[in-house]
Amino acid sequence: MLNYRKQNWRSLSLVERALKMEKQGNFYHRLLIGKYENFALNMGYLTWESALDNTYCIYHSEKQGQWYVTLLPNKEWAIWNCSNEKPPYRSTAFHTWQKAINSLRLSFEKEGLPEWNWRPEGFDEGEDIFSKEPDQEKRYMY
Predict the structure, then answer these.
(1) What radius of gyration, in Å, describes the C-alpha atoms of the chain?
(2) What is the DSSP code (8-state) at residue 12?
(3) Rounded to 10 degrees, what is the CA torsion of 93, 95, 100, 103?
(4) Residue-level pLDDT at 129
(5) pTM of the prediction?
Protein backbone atom coordinates (compact mmCIF):
# COMPACT_ATOMS: atom_id res chain seq x y z
CA MET A 1 0.00 0.00 0.00
CA LEU A 2 2.83 2.37 0.85
CA ASN A 3 4.45 1.87 -2.56
CA TYR A 4 1.11 2.52 -4.24
CA ARG A 5 0.81 5.81 -2.37
CA LYS A 6 4.37 6.79 -3.30
CA GLN A 7 3.76 5.96 -6.93
CA ASN A 8 0.43 7.75 -6.82
CA TRP A 9 2.08 10.81 -5.27
CA ARG A 10 4.89 10.75 -7.83
CA SER A 11 2.42 10.58 -10.67
CA LEU A 12 0.82 13.87 -9.63
CA SER A 13 1.87 17.07 -11.35
CA LEU A 14 3.50 19.81 -9.27
CA VAL A 15 0.24 21.77 -9.30
CA GLU A 16 -1.75 18.71 -8.17
CA ARG A 17 0.79 18.06 -5.41
CA ALA A 18 0.63 21.66 -4.25
CA LEU A 19 -3.18 21.58 -4.17
CA LYS A 20 -3.18 18.31 -2.25
CA MET A 21 -0.66 19.64 0.28
CA GLU A 22 -2.68 22.84 0.66
CA LYS A 23 -5.85 20.84 1.35
CA GLN A 24 -4.04 18.69 3.93
CA GLY A 25 -2.47 21.78 5.47
CA ASN A 26 -5.83 23.54 5.68
CA PHE A 27 -7.35 20.49 7.33
CA TYR A 28 -4.62 20.30 9.99
CA HIS A 29 -4.64 24.07 10.39
CA ARG A 30 -8.42 24.08 10.97
CA LEU A 31 -8.14 21.12 13.32
CA LEU A 32 -5.51 22.77 15.52
CA ILE A 33 -6.26 26.47 15.13
CA GLY A 34 -10.02 25.88 15.13
CA LYS A 35 -9.88 24.96 18.82
CA TYR A 36 -8.11 28.21 19.61
CA GLU A 37 -10.61 30.12 17.50
CA ASN A 38 -13.45 28.49 19.46
CA PHE A 39 -11.81 29.52 22.72
CA ALA A 40 -11.53 33.07 21.39
CA LEU A 41 -15.21 33.01 20.37
CA ASN A 42 -16.15 31.83 23.87
CA MET A 43 -14.36 34.90 25.23
CA GLY A 44 -16.20 37.18 22.80
CA TYR A 45 -13.50 37.65 20.14
CA LEU A 46 -13.87 36.83 16.47
CA THR A 47 -10.33 35.45 16.11
CA TRP A 48 -7.62 33.90 18.25
CA GLU A 49 -5.26 36.66 17.14
CA SER A 50 -7.57 39.40 18.46
CA ALA A 51 -7.89 37.54 21.78
CA LEU A 52 -4.09 37.29 22.04
CA ASP A 53 -3.77 41.02 21.35
CA ASN A 54 -5.64 41.55 24.63
CA THR A 55 -3.91 38.82 26.64
CA TYR A 56 -1.10 39.21 29.17
CA CYS A 57 1.07 36.51 30.70
CA ILE A 58 1.15 36.83 34.49
CA TYR A 59 3.11 33.92 35.88
CA HIS A 60 4.51 30.48 35.22
CA SER A 61 3.77 27.37 37.25
CA GLU A 62 5.59 24.07 36.78
CA LYS A 63 2.37 22.19 37.60
CA GLN A 64 -0.19 24.34 35.81
CA GLY A 65 1.70 26.01 32.97
CA GLN A 66 1.40 29.67 32.06
CA TRP A 67 -1.33 31.79 33.66
CA TYR A 68 -2.87 34.53 31.55
CA VAL A 69 -5.38 37.31 31.90
CA THR A 70 -7.40 38.55 28.92
CA LEU A 71 -9.32 41.80 28.63
CA LEU A 72 -12.69 40.76 27.22
CA PRO A 73 -14.71 42.85 24.76
CA ASN A 74 -17.26 43.56 27.52
CA LYS A 75 -14.41 45.06 29.61
CA GLU A 76 -14.31 42.17 32.09
CA TRP A 77 -11.10 40.20 32.67
CA ALA A 78 -10.76 36.43 32.18
CA ILE A 79 -8.03 34.41 33.84
CA TRP A 80 -6.96 31.10 32.31
CA ASN A 81 -3.99 28.84 31.94
CA CYS A 82 -2.67 26.43 29.40
CA SER A 83 -1.27 23.39 31.07
CA ASN A 84 -1.64 19.95 29.57
CA GLU A 85 -5.16 20.72 28.41
CA LYS A 86 -6.08 21.51 24.87
CA PRO A 87 -8.26 24.50 24.06
CA PRO A 88 -10.85 25.61 24.79
CA TYR A 89 -9.29 26.27 28.18
CA ARG A 90 -11.31 26.80 31.33
CA SER A 91 -11.50 30.44 32.31
CA THR A 92 -12.98 32.59 35.05
CA ALA A 93 -14.25 36.11 34.41
CA PHE A 94 -13.95 39.03 36.82
CA HIS A 95 -15.62 42.44 36.60
CA THR A 96 -12.41 44.34 37.38
CA TRP A 97 -8.69 44.11 36.79
CA GLN A 98 -8.08 44.26 40.55
CA LYS A 99 -10.24 41.21 41.23
CA ALA A 100 -8.60 39.23 38.43
CA ILE A 101 -5.02 40.05 39.42
CA ASN A 102 -5.74 39.47 43.12
CA SER A 103 -7.18 36.04 42.28
CA LEU A 104 -4.06 35.17 40.29
CA ARG A 105 -1.80 36.37 43.10
CA LEU A 106 -3.69 34.23 45.64
CA SER A 107 -3.33 31.21 43.36
CA PHE A 108 0.37 31.95 42.93
CA GLU A 109 0.94 32.21 46.69
CA LYS A 110 -1.06 29.02 47.41
CA GLU A 111 1.23 27.15 45.04
CA GLY A 112 4.27 28.43 46.93
CA LEU A 113 6.16 29.37 43.79
CA PRO A 114 9.40 31.36 43.84
CA GLU A 115 8.87 35.09 43.37
CA TRP A 116 10.79 35.17 40.09
CA ASN A 117 7.96 33.12 38.49
CA TRP A 118 5.64 36.12 39.05
CA ARG A 119 6.30 38.37 36.05
CA PRO A 120 3.16 40.23 35.00
CA GLU A 121 3.33 41.38 31.43
CA GLY A 122 2.30 44.95 30.60
CA PHE A 123 4.14 46.67 33.43
CA ASP A 124 7.55 48.14 34.10
CA GLU A 125 9.53 46.53 36.89
CA GLY A 126 8.47 47.96 40.25
CA GLU A 127 5.10 49.28 39.03
CA ASP A 128 2.06 48.68 41.23
CA ILE A 129 0.22 46.04 39.21
CA PHE A 130 -2.72 45.92 41.61
CA SER A 131 -3.83 49.52 41.14
CA LYS A 132 -3.79 49.89 37.34
CA GLU A 133 -4.43 47.79 34.26
CA PRO A 134 -1.59 46.48 32.07
CA ASP A 135 -0.26 48.62 29.23
CA GLN A 136 -0.16 47.03 25.77
CA GLU A 137 2.93 49.08 24.93
CA LYS A 138 4.82 47.26 27.73
CA ARG A 139 4.09 43.72 26.56
CA TYR A 140 6.90 41.26 25.98
CA MET A 141 8.03 40.84 22.40
CA TYR A 142 8.10 37.17 21.43
Answers:
(1) 21
(2) S
(3) -80
(4) 94
(5) 0.73
